[in-house]
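Predict the 3D structure for this chain.
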Amino acid sequence: MRAVTLTLAAALAAGPAVAQTLSLSGEAGQQATLSAAQFAALPHLHLQVMQHGQPHAYDGVLLSDLLSRVGAPRGDGIKGRELATVVRVSAHDGYQVVVSLAETDAVTRAARMIVADREAGAPLKPEEGPFRLVIEGDLRPARSARQVERIEVISLSTLSKATPAKGR
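Done. Predicted structure below.
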């Protein structure tokens, strides 16, 4: 009985388990959920970044590729009202970061953003993953959210879809 009590106490002290899925949400309510296995099967790219003065090598999926799964525009489709669209990345511990939709796309910004599931060729450590946002070119990794569980596309535009922006 004492062993069961200790095991239960240790499990409760460890806190809630980190989700092994990644939830995606589009601006118009589109939804997608990827398991760690489904995510691992997607095309990956390699990204090397400096974090806290140390080089790190991550493998993951372009954030723009994930966003396209829930209807987010890409390339020349990002104009007008889409320039006031943001992407909120939420982590297991409640940490959130926001990037603009435009900065996730290679047509707008050369530096890449990936959602990584591997570092140095191995799965991310439990305190880092299973998914981590990695942003190339950031001078400090404050936006490199760990234990990412949810990514949402949110429009901040006051323009309706039927009203084109003037001068665009």
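The two ends are 71 Å apart (CA to CA).
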